[in-house]
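Incident log, structure service

09:12 report received: a user says their structure output differs between two submissions of the same chain.
09:20 pulled the input from the user's history:
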Amino acid sequence: MSLEFGFRLIGMIVFAAVGASFGGQIADDINLPNEASSLLFLLVGALTGLIMTPWITTRPAKAARDRIVDTSAETLATSMIGLLFGLILSALLAWPLSL
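09:34 re-ran on a clean worker, output below:
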């Protein structure tokens, strides 16, 4: 089983649970029994999760990894130094600005 397929299954389960919960909440509004509405939205959520999860998880991570690999070492080191200075400055300014 590939990593992307594993994430698809996890996303399908999460979206199915959210869909079933949403379907149970709006059952009265759409004039369906609670069980039918929950099942309908569970299936729609499972399908949506199965299709959309890679676009949320693995594809952005792959794009970020590819961009980091293509970045030169000088640019990467300079970025890390800038990030470190920014974190130190924000930590030093957090207390006075919170007063």
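09:41 both user submissions now match this output. Likely a transient worker issue. Closing.
09:42 reviewer note: The longest helix spans residues 73-97. The chain has a mean pLDDT of 92.
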